[in-house]
């Protein structure tokens, strides 16, 4: 008997919602079953351990985010890159991210990856996708050594997003800050 993919996906979606609302500590099989509207037995049938559930949830997020970022990177290449296009792309990735429970969950999972090395490969895949997009944008803007600077740009974006999340204030300055740094790098 094969495991029903719809039930499995419902469980993963529930895990991401719960993590976004209450952190990893809030993930219990009973709560997952309630959130996913599945039986308690379905949770343990589809995922033998909590680690497996967390890992699969992070991998699911990474796959979705990688797909989204890859599409954006391809658009950057086919549509060209200027300051306005770069600002719009950065805004799409960072400034426009709604901080609902589904978008808070990855921050929790990244922190969990710091505690659990078995999750680090998935977290690394996610950051690699962000780095590729950042390198594409920086290259399109004519920033020298864009590949090397991409991870720093991503770290800045994540830091400003985390600050916005922690303070409740919008990250309006995010795009302006990144564009200022990109312009400075172009002239150095």
TrEMBL record:
Keywords: DNA-binding. Pfam families: TetR_C_31 (PF17940), TetR_N (PF00440). Residues 5-65 form the HTH tetR-type domain. The keyword Heme does not apply. Transmembrane segments: none annotated. Gene3D superfamilies: Tetracycline Repressor, domain 2. Residues 28-47 bind DNA. It comes from the Bacteria. This is TetR family transcriptional regulator.
């Amino acid at each position: 008997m094969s495991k029903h993919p719809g039930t499995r996906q419902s469980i993963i979606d529930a895990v991401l919602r719960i993590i976004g609302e209450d952190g990893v500590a809030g993930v219990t099989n009973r709560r997952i079953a309630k959130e996913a509207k599945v039986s308690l037995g379905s949770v343990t049938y589809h995922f033998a351990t909590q680690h497996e559930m967390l890992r699969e949830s992070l991998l699911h997020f990474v796959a979705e985010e990688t797909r989204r970022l890859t599409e954006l990177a391809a658009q950057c290449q086919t549509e060209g890159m200027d300051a306005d296009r770069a600002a719009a792309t950065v805004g799409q990735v960072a400034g426009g991210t709604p901080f609902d429970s589904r978008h808070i969950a990855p921050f929790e999972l990244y922190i969990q990856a710091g505690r659990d090395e078995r999750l680090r490969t998935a977290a690394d895949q996610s950051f690699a996708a962000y780095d590729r997009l950042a390198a594409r944008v920086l290259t399109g803007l004519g920033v020298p050594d864009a590949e090397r600077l991409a991870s720093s740009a991503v770290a800045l974006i994540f830091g400003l997003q985390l600050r916005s999340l922690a303070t409740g204030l919008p990250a309006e300055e995010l795009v302006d800050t990144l564009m200022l740094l990109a312009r400075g790098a172009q002239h150095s």
